[in-house]
Amino acid sequence: MIAPVTESAALVVDPQLAAAVEVARQVLAEDVPNDAIGDHLEVVAEGELIATHLFACLNPGYVGWRWAVNVTRVPDSDVVTVNETVLLPGNGSLLSPQLLPWDERVEAGDLGVGDVLPTAPDDVRLVPGYTGVDQDDTEDDDLAPVMWELGLGRVRVLSADGRDEAATRWADGDNGPNSPIAKAASEQCSTCGFLVIMTGPLGRAFGLCANEFSPSDGKVVSLDHGCGAHSEAEPEPLPVVVVDLVVDDLSPDGLDTTELSDDELEATDEALIDSLEDEADLEVAVAAVDEVIGELEAQAEDVEVEEVSDSQVQDELAVDEQVANGELKDLTANADEETS
Questions:
Q1: Which of 75, 185, 276, 310 would staple 226 via disulfide (CB 3.0–4.6 Å)?
Q2: What gap in Å lies between CA 185 and CA 193, rounded to an integer?
C-alpha cells in the first residue's frame, strides 16, 4: 500500500524520496524499538529534495504521536540519506499541560518547612511602608512614616487590594459566615467572650478566636462567624424521664393458637349463647329485687310513726318486715339458682 503524499503548489515531493519508505524505517529502527514503530502514515514535502516520512507511534505513553524521519538527496545522485528522526504530536494526540512558571503553579498550602517563596517587587498586594496605608485612622501607630527614614519600619505593607483579597478569602473560608458550622450556630463571634479584638482596618470585620475547644482556635474569624463553643452558650435541657414500659402479656407468643374442630366450635358457640341467656335472666331477677325493695321503702315512708308505746303499730311493722324479708330471700335464692 502506497502512503499518501502531502504537497503544495510550491513544494512537490521528489519521487525517489517518496519511495524511500523502507530506508526511513530501517534508520528509525536503529534508534527506536521495532515494536514501537507502526504503519507508514504519509510523506510530506518540506522543501526541494527534502521530505519527511511519518510512522505511527505504538508507545502507549504517546497516543496519537508520530515518528518523523526526514530524508533528502543531492540533485545528481539517487542515494537517499536521512537527516534526522524525531517524535512529533499528531492531530488529537495526548499533550502535556502548558508549562507554567513556578510562581504561577504554587497554591495555598504548598509551602513547607525550609521552602522559600519570594514575593515579586511589583506585587499589587503590597505598597511601600512609608505610605502608612495599613494604619488605623482611629489610633496612633508607633511605626509612623518617619520611622522608615531611620530604617526601623517595614519596607512594604499591605495595600488596599491585598487587604480586600485577604478579607474576601477569610470571609469565604471555613471561618466565615457561610460555613456550615456558622449557619448552625445560634450566636455570632461578635458577642463571644473568647474573641480577641484586632486593630487596623481588618479589625472592623475580623478577630481572633481564643477558645481551645473551638475548631477556630488561634485563627482569624469573621465577626459574623459562629460555633457551638460560644461563651454564652446555654447548657442542654435535662432529659425527660421516661416511665416504665408496659409489657403486653397477651402477645401472640403466649396464646394458644391451636385450631378448633367443627364440634369444638359448635360447643363453644352453645356455651357462649347459654352464658348470654344466664346473664339476661340474672339481670331480670336483679331488676325484680330492686323493684320490691323500692315498694317496701315507699310503704315504710307512708306509715305514720306514733309513740313507741303503741304496741299495735310495733307489731304490724314487725309483721311487714318479716314478710318483706321472706320475699327478698325467695327472690335472691331464685336469682342464685338461675345464675348457677
A1: 185
A2: 15
Which residue numbers in the chain have pLDDT < 50? 1-2, 305-308
Give the contacts of 272 (CB within 8 A, at least 6 positions apart): none
Q: H helices of the chain, where? A: 15-18, 21-31, 102-105, 146-149, 160-172, 180-184, 262-302, 311-339
The gap from C-alpha 251 to its chain's centroid, in whole angstroms, comes to 42
- Rounded CA-CA distance 100/182 in Å is 37
Q: Which three cell numbers stand for residue 107?
A: 497554591
Question: In angstroms, rounded to a whole number, what is the distance separating the alpha carbons of residues 20 and 3?
Answer: 11
Domain boundaries, the chain: 5-89, 120-234, 264-339
Which pTM was predicted? Answer: 0.39
Q: What are phi and psi of 3, to 5 degrees?
A: -75, 150
pLDDT tens digits for range 156-172: 888 889 999 999 999 99
> Which residue bears the cell 503548489?
9
176 contact partners, CB below 8 Å, separation of at least 6: 170, 182, 222, 225
Task: Measure the CA angle with vertex 108, ends 106 and 110; round to 5°.
Answer: 60
- Residue 31's H or E segment, with its range, is helix 21-31
